[in-house]
Amino acid sequence: MKLPLLHLLTLCLTVGELSGYNSNKRAFLQAKRSRKDYRRLKKQEGALKLVGGERGAFEGNVEILHKGRWGNVCDDEWDELEAKVVCRQLGYANVKAKPTSNARFGQARRRYWMDNLLCGGDESELSKCRFDGWGRTDCRSGEAAGVICGGGGEDLMPNATLNRVDSQDKSKIRDVHPRGIAVRLSGPRQGRLELKLPDSDWGVVCGDGWSLLEAAVICRQLGLGYAAQAYQTSFFGGNKLPMAVSGIKCRGDERHVAECLHDELLDCPGVGENVAGLTCASRMADLVFDHLELERTAHLEDRPLYFLQCAMEENCLASQAYQVQRETDRWHWETRRLLRFTARILNAGTADFRPSVPKHLWEWHMCHMHYHSMEVFATFDIIDSSGRRVAEGHKASFCLEDNQCLHGVQPRYRCANYGDQGISVNCSDIYKYNIDCQWVDISELAPGPYTLKVAVNPELKVGEMSFDNNAATCKLLYAETFAKVHSCVMGRP
């Protein structure tokens, strides 16, 4: 039987609609199953979630589940590789993962579970990366690590909107307020910072991104010496005062805070608890890195993993070394190539350099048989011509002591026997090239020209008179049989 043309068209349309319906139904069911799997995974060991993001589930501070309890991740050594793993684990595949630090999405709400993460970038879960151990950290509430998973995913905004919101415009305070601003501290040398803008009452400053660099400018402007501490807290009160500005960003050498940048639009996560505060001191330490000693002592060493087992426990080798350990029983005889050098750090300031955490929180390291007082005291990075970090040295922790002092100065600090740690004025802490972890593992690095950067106090956790002599940026020529470090320039971490 022949059907009228109209009926044929209707039948074809119905079949097409049915095909589309089935396709959509399959996609819907698959998405539904994925959401069920995601909800189930959120309750498993090592599950992740992002908190504090205001634009959607694709951004926020990272929290991880361990032993049934959620905890934060510290931003020490947090970069694109770790952010990439987080976004992939959360289901944002093939996106640009942007790491955030300094509690970008608000103060850490819980204890820190992870610190000093080292990911290769291809791990399936963040918990499979190397780190210092569950709960081992010296991080404060303002050091929460976060991510922005910048593409793909049903909760994501269009890229144009994402880019516009994420690139908050900053400008100099004096350009926006040419009539000037007043500054005061709530206490004699310690307290919350208050600003008075033209035609406004006194208000507080948002603690988001607040650091020793910004605090140093305030102490200098008020004639109170140097910045000893920078706080992001409501401990000093001020949570009932209006918020004057947010996002202050200084180099640290400005004479007046009006020369610093700030957010053109007020934006402060966790307003009530996120108030900028500081402590000023008349005397301060000042570390000076000896770049000449670095150039003189740098050399290559090929060493079997059998002799590096203690260093492996402290995450001092490249990721490939741990992969070899997992994949072969004869990993002990595999050889790693190390770029070794001596780091000599002089305290040329007017006060002793002391660890950033109290003594009762120091970590005992069985391999080295002494307590370590700072998790990150120095970083060693090798950078290629495009500015990409291609190798890094990682020392899990550091012991600070007086190894060599100028004539007439008695050493006061020793690591042995649970002694007090620090670096006295006019004394040096020396990490010789022959000790564990005083190297960069370059086993997978191709020969060629690179940049080597060694920095002390890189996270600015301890106040100094100046940070301009804390890092040496050097040229590195790496050949098959030798390495030469030369032409070092001093600068900031």
UniProtKB/TrEMBL annotation:
Its cofactor is Cu cation. It is an enzyme of class 1 (oxidoreductase). It is a single-pass membrane protein. Residues 1-20 form the signal peptide. It is found in: Membrane; Secreted, Extracellular space. Pfam families: Lysyl_oxidase, SRCR. Its EC number is 1.4.3.13. Residues 48-150, 173-281 form the SRCR domain. Keywords: Copper, Disulfide bond, Glycoprotein, LTQ, Membrane, Metal-binding, Oxidoreductase, Repeat, Secreted, Signal, TPQ, Transmembrane, Transmembrane helix. This is protein-lysine 6-oxidase. The lineage of its organism: Eukaryota, Metazoa, Ecdysozoa, Arthropoda, Hexapoda.
